[in-house]
Write a structure and sequence with these properties.
By secondary structure, the chain is of the alpha/beta class. Helices cover about 25% and strands about 15% of the residues. The protein has a single domain, classed as TIM Barrel. Bound molecules: 2-acetamido-2-deoxy-beta-D-glucopyranose (5 copies).
């Protein structure tokens, strides 16, 4: 059951370091993100920004990218909201990141805020409006990249998301339009994904993600919360290999993720492994 990959517990962790292969696409960032280097990123939990983990607690020198979580989708395709994540801290986040030579990204969506992705990308008009909402936000706050965390296209997440069989194709059409926008063309665009590729209109995991490989700089695979107290069996939070769990309980791993995404056409050098910096008790 793939839903366990991103249970709400995910959002309790505020820094999930990632290590990766080498994204090959070069953008002309105002901030020279060192593209020859692996992506070294962490998600910063905006909702802990004044209580728990302050900006001053960030080890900026360990990263070339920090991702502020979460910018939320709203019922109005023209609007995005930082409401749940200390909006007043966000401009400071961007300027602190830049001061340290770190690219400032924003995570859009997440477990609780993916509710309106499907309707936002459902029609050509909505995609155009959503592109404008995202690029306006990035321009307004001088953001270097967007990590799109739609949980999940054509697969229900938190329970009340809008959803359509066409989600994955509409998502791609949205991303293609975002890339055509002069602001969008310069952004580093990534997606936080499940272990297996997006569900397509047939209801199965996509076997061809080459279109996505063209528009994403990289994907960040959420290989954590694979097992936790919600699971029927005890298992590793972030398994390197399926064999980390007993044969009957295996539900995926980093090895499975890399196999599935590369088999579907995502180049190895565009896959960043999400690594948990925390564990679960059972
Ligand atoms: C969207 O933004 C506009 C302009 O800021 C505002 O008037 C409207 O209430 C917002 N809609 C929602 C659903 O928040
Ligand atoms: C932000 O939160 C306030 C208070 O909870 C609410 O009234 C407002 O509609 C929210 N705005 C958006 C865009 O979600
Ligand atoms: C387009 O977006 C609006 C919200 O701004 C929404 O009400 C509408 O349902 C969306 N269209 C579709 C087909 O989902
Ligand atoms: C899905 O897209 C096809 C065209 O590609 C369209 O005919 C169909 O109505 C769409 N389905 C939904 C549920 O929007
Ligand atoms: C994963 O497990 C399989 C089966 O035991 C093994 O062949 C493979 O080498 C393992 N991969 C890694 C990265 O440990």
């Amino acid at each position: 059951m793939w839903f366990v990959l991103t249970s709400p517990l995910l959002v309790l962790s505020f820094a999930l370091p990632q290590a990766s292969a080498h994204p090959q696409r070069t953008h002309h960032h105002r901030l020279a993100t060192p593209r020859a280097e692996p992506v070294a990123a962490a998600w910063y939990a905006g909702w802990h920004a004044t209580d728990g983990f302050l900006l001053s607690d960030v080890s900026w020198d360990k990263y070339n990218t920090l991702i502020y979580s979460f910018l939320e989708t709203t019922p109005d395709v023209h609007n995005l909201s930082l409401n749940g994540s200390e909006p007043s801290v966000f401009p400071q986040f961007v300027s602190e990141a830049h001061k340290h030579g770190v690219a400032a990204h924003v995570a859009l969506g997440g477990w609780t805020a993916s509710r309106w992705f499907s309707s936002n990308v459902a029609t050509a008009d909505n995609r155009t409006a959503f592109v404008k909402a995202v690029t306006d936000f990035c321009r307004q706050y001088d953001v270097d990249g967007v990590n799109i965390d739609w949980e999940y296209p054509n697969s229900q997440g938190t329970g009340c998301n809008t959803i359509s069989p066409n989600d994955t194709q509409n998502f791609l059409a949205f991303l293609q339009e975002l890339r055509k926008d002069p602001v969008g063309a310069k952004l580093t665009i990534s997606a936080a994904t499940s272990i297996l590729p997006f569900i397509d209109a047939t209801g199965s995991h996509s076997t061809d993600v080459t279109g996505f490989a063209e528009v994403f700089d990289y994907i960040t695979v959420m290989n954590y919360d694979v097992f936790g107290p919600w699971s029927a069996a005890v298992g590793p939070n972030a398994p390197l290999n399926d064999t980390c769990a007993p044969p009957d309980d295996q539900v995926g791993s980093a090895v499975t993720a890399v196999k599935a995404w590369t088999a579907a056409g995502m180049p190895l050098n565009k896959i960043v492994l999400g690594v948990a910096a925390y564990g679960h008790s059972f």
